[in-house]
Write a structure and sequence with these properties.
Helices cover 36% and strands 20% of the residues. The chain is α/β, with parallel strands linked by helices. It folds into two domains: 279 residues, Zn peptidases (Aminopeptidase); 120 residues, Alpha-Beta Plaits, CATH 3.30.70. The strands form five sheets. It has a six-stranded mixed sheet with strand order 1-2-6-3-7-16, sandwiched between helices. A four-stranded antiparallel sheet has the order 11-13-9-14, covered by helices on one side. A three-stranded antiparallel sheet has the order 4-5-17. The radius of gyration is 24 Å and the shape is globular. Bound molecules: zinc ion. Zinc ion (ZN) binds next to loops.
């Protein structure tokens, strides 16, 4: 059985592979400020070449490079695997137990920015292929991998890369390896992601800040903005923009069945405990709360700023007010159309003085539970983690999955090998040797199962 040969080979080289992961973790690659990106792309290219890939580094304009690799085989099937090598900024630095780019390994726990999200996932794919190369095994599928460097800033240029390299990216299915395990140690499989419309609203009144004694005469932009905001959403979370719900597809019977398999009581109790809240919005509970989490579009205020916010009192009438809003979208809402609906909504209510600037667009995605890639990834998860994976019909989070499902027409599963509660995006992000090494086997097992050997 080939996977057991991969496993026994891996046990001999695991020390080297962990060192290679640590080398990649020591290389910063902070997309939010462009730090270390090119260096990281080159390092990844070299690791992939060593693993046996044919590698190309793609670069469009000043977009961060995409590192693309191919491992051809005689199989008629092609699998495309996606990952990202960029990371979030590590701040606040003082909260880290060890510096974020030193990859300190203490008793098998490796602490570094990007350890979980997502360099251990990226390296798991690379090292799975390296095992095949060293063992001189042919892959049971043609494998294509695409590692981008802008996922943490919303993949703004990935649509252009996918369009430009559409022929190269032809495949039969996709696996996005950028996820991880649930608290019970089972891989989570997401069969769709929410979309995103991220906007900044700005209201300007006067040319300069004014003494607040002028409030009887001069419009306060903070009040204007608040009035506009309250017109967008009711207190229970319903979005009040005309037509916002028009394109939404109701969850299918299969989707609901998957939801009912989730241990939602544990999940919801864990959320309440972690965030220190004793009730959810509108008092929703049980399966209804999970349905809302996965299938409800949202209008969230991510940041709101205006005027004086320092210590003590300052009587000022600010000249401008800003808000950042993220709208999460569900299948099959379209962020470009909804941006127009939002603009129309504000205009119709007399808020012409509010400037709307769109910062990010992601479309929602969906893959049917009966797709063969879902079966392949589930079987691989069961084989490697010795328990059934947790399959969600949709994720509450967002990502560029729609490029694979909608633009390339592929079925796609979002999964990965990060440990549960791994502090992604927060200080002290970590992975473990064990999670990484098992992740290599998971990637190999996905390739095996999709290739159809062992079915
Ligand atoms: Zn992330």
């Amino acid at each position: 059985m080939r996977l057991s040969e991969v496993e026994s080979f891996l046990s001999k080289v695991s020390g080297y592979y962990v060192e290679d992961l640590k080398t990649l973790l020591k290389q910063p690659s902070i997309s939010a400020r462009g730090e270390g990106i090119d260096g990281c792309a080159c390092m990844l290219r070299d690791f992939m070449k060593d693993a046996g890939f044919r590698v190309e580094v793609w670069k469009i304009g000043d977009a961060n490079p995409v590192v693309y690799g191919e491992m051809p085989s005689n199989s008629p099937k092609t699998l495309l695997m996606y990952g990202h090598y960029d990371v979030q900024p590590p701040e606040p630095l003082e909260e880290w137990v060890s510096p974020p780019f030193e990859a300190v390994d203490s008793d098998g726990k490796i602490t570094a920015r990007g350890a979980a999200d997502s360099k251990s996932n990226v390296m798991a794919i690379v090292k799975a292929v390296e095992c095949y190369s060293r063992l001189e095994f042919d892959l049971p599928v043609n494998l294509k991998v695409l590692f981008e460097g802008e996922e943490e800033i919303g993949s703004p240029n990935l649509p252009r890369y996918v369009e430009m390299y559409r022929d190269k990216l032809k495949a039969d299915a996709a696996v996005c390896f950028d996820g991880g395990l649930d608290p019970k140690g089972r891989p989570e499989l997401w069969l769709g992601l929410k979309g995103m419309l991220y906007v900044e609203l700005k209201c300007r009144a006067a040319r300069v800040d004014a003494h607040s004694s002028l409030a009887p005469l001069i419009e306060n932009p903070a009040w204007r903005l608040i009035q506009a905001l309250t017109s967008l959403r009711s207190p229970d979370g319903t979005i009040l923009v005309d037509g916002w719900y028009d394109d939404i597809r109701v969850p299918s019977e299969e989707d609901i069945k998957l939801i009912e398999d989730v241990d939602y009581d544990t999940l919801l109790a864990g959320l309440k405990r972690h965030f220190g809240v004793d009730r959810f919005l509108s008092g929703v509970e049980g399966v209804e709360a999970l349905k809302k989490l996965l299938f409800q579009p949202t209008c969230n205020i991510a940041g709101l700023y205006s005027g004086y916010t320092g210590l003590g009192a300052k009587t000022v009438l600010p000249r401008e007010a800003c808000v950042k809003l993220d709208f999460r979208l569900v299948y099959d809402q379209n962020p470009y159309r909804l941006l127009e609906s939002l603009r129309r909504h504000l205009k119709a209510r007399g808020f012409d003085d509010i400037e709307v600037k769109a910062l990010n667009f992601l479309e929602p995605s969906k893959t049917h539970p009966s797709a063969s890639i879902v079966k392949a990834v589930s079987s691989a998860a069961s084989e490697v983690y010795r328990s059934k994976p947790q399959i969600y019909p949709n994720s509450p989070g967002s990502g560029p999955d729609y490029l694979f499902t909608k633009r390339l027409g592929l079925d796609s599963v979002w999964t990965g090998c990060s440990p549960p509660l791994s502090n992604a995006h927060a200080p002290n992000e970590y992975t473990t040797r064990e999670s990484f090494l098992r992740g290599i086997l998971f990637a190999a097992s996905i390739i095996e199962h999709y290739g159809g050997l062992d079915w």
